[in-house]
Amino acid sequence: MTNPLIVRIALGTLLLVACSPGGATTGLRPGTAPEAVTCTASVQSCYCPDGTSSGTQSCDPKQGLGMCVCPAAAQTLSPSTSTSLPMKLCSTLQGNSACQARSYASQQVPSSILFVVDRSGSMACNAPPIQSDDACDVNPVRADPSQPSKWETTTRALGDAFGALSGTTASIGLSFFSSDDYCGADSTPAVELAAPDSTQLSALSGAMSAASPSGGTPIVGAVISAYHHLHEELHAPGNRYVVLITDGAEDCGTKGDATDEADLAAARERLLGTEVEKAREANIKTFVIGSPGSEKARGFLSELAYRGGTARSPDCLHSGGDGGTGGGDVGDCHFDLTKETDFAGVLKSALGNISGKAVGCVFQTPPGDVQQLNVQYSHAGSDPVCLPQDDASPCDQGANGWQFAKDPSGNDDTTHVVLCGQACDAVKADPTTVVDVVLGCPIIM
Questions:
Q1: Nearest residue to 211 (alpha-carbon basis) of 231, 228, 186, 233
Q2: Higher pLDDT, 371 or 322
Q3: pTM for this one?
Q4: What are the distances in angstroms from CA 53 to CA 47, 94, 106?
Q5: Is 357 in contact with 405 (CB distance < 8 Å)?
Q6: Three-state secondary structure readout of 71-129
Q7: Given phi > 0 = left and psi -120 to 50 = alpha, else beta, which region is 324?
Q8: CA 117, chain centre distance (Å)
């Protein structure tokens, strides 16, 4: 049996820059000073099994910190250091004499989340039951001025969601559509991606306060623009997400003509048939929230969530109406809020759900035999806790433990592990948590 390797990840570290040759760093935005450094090209010290920092570790320009190389004398975990972090194993692994650990440094995988928000004219209306969608179509102003519009409800819920992401490993940004009171979809977000600190939260709040409902609903153009922006690694490291919020159907297409059904269908097909797949191959997933008013686009929005890798259940409906590419009203893969009476409450809940999934608990694994891999965690230097592998169901459907991440085709991505359920909650709840990925021991089930 091979010696196990341990991957150490401090959850409090925010990965904002990537390692590059010569010790240079690449920030999230051009001209922005990096807030934390993953590694440099110089060799640095690292912990060995004997509990001393006698090992050496260099920077890989693509993968970050490399494996810790230790002297022969430091390969054995001695009794005097067996209780000191970072080398202590959880109780189950400690009982296995074959588990002789040496360290491997890594980071929690960060998330980049770009919110793409509908500010078309219909967002100025009250949500049902105060104002029906048909009445809004006739006159897109609030029927009851004393009650909030869909736009006001959405911006308040977004403000709460942004605030809840403060202190996480996420970078968040914001785009609006239409951007020109007609059918515009800008290639650059209204608020560029950045860590949700006080400066970024102020920028997001200011952008939402300055915007108001007007124009059409260029969903296709807005989502494709978001994909293109996230494709640029400089802007968006780690796991990448588009969160689409809309109360309508695509009505712009390539011509800006809501009556040209052929053009609108071609635009939807381009998004679903080409752009979503390209995005998934680049590790960009698409969450979709259908606000009241999006009933006629339910099939399209459901198909977009399904193909975007965020289906709410494996057996959800995603080929409604005309196959999901048009105005079909059948589908439930997305967050469909059209049947809810408490729009504000369910929108806040949906955004919280999405944010939790996007931030997630994803960690890198070291190179080696992943058939002998285990995961443990500890709080503030306490004894490590072993986590079982639980891949009987997806993370968001009851799994509690760890499982391998999935690639765009749904196969195991053994370069990353994901913590699920209470295991993920326990890790995220305490910023002192350290997660270890251990290679070299039989998997705990």
A1: 186
A2: 371
A3: 0.71
A4: 4, 21, 16
A5: no
A6: CHHHCCCCHHHCCCCCCCCCHHHHCCCCCCCEEEECCECCEEEEEEEECCHHHHCECCC
A7: left
A8: 17
* CB contact set of 423 (below 8 Å; sequence gap of 6+): 361, 377, 387, 400, 401, 402
Query: What per-residue string of b and e applies to 42-59 under the rule 16 or more CB within 10 Å gives b?
Result: eeeebbbbbbbeebebbb
d(CA 407, CA 90): 29
Neighbours of 282 (CB within 10 A): 14
Residues 287, 28: Cα–Cα separation, whole Å:
22
Q: Is the dihedral of CA 111, 407, 271, 339 positive or negative?
A: negative
Residue 374's pLDDT is 86
Please count the residues of the chain: 445
Residue 243's DSSP bridge partners are 115, 287
E-strand spans in 124-282?
170-177, 191-194, 239-246
Q: DSSP class of residue 147?
A: S
Domains defined along the chain, listed by start = 5-108+362-439 (no CATH), 111-359 (3.40.50.410)
Answer whether 379's CB lies under 8 Å from 443's CB.
no
pLDDT at residue 149 is higher than 70: yes
Q: Please state, in angstroms and rounded to a whole number, the distance separating the CA atoms of residues 129 and 146.
A: 14
Contact assessment for residue 56 and residue 46, using Cβ atoms and an 8 Å cutoff: yes
Residue type, position 71, single letter:
P
Residues 366, 65: Cα–Cα separation, whole Å: 10
Cα–Cα distance, 219 to 244 (Å, whole number): 8
pLDDT of residue 5: 40
Write the pLDDT tens digit of every residue in 78-114. 333 332 334 577 888 876 766 655 444 445 778 899 9
**For residues 59 and 105, what is the distance between their CA atoms, to the nearest angstrom?**
11
Please give the pLDDT value at position 28: 22
C-alpha angle 361/192/396, rounded to 5°?
Answer: 25
Phi–psi pair at 142, nearest 5 degrees: -60, 130
Please name the residues in contact with 393: beta carbons below 8 A apart, sequence gap of 6 or more. 399
- What's the pLDDT tens digit per position in 152-210? 999 999 999 999 888 787 899 999 999 998 998 988 999 999 999 999 999 999 999 99
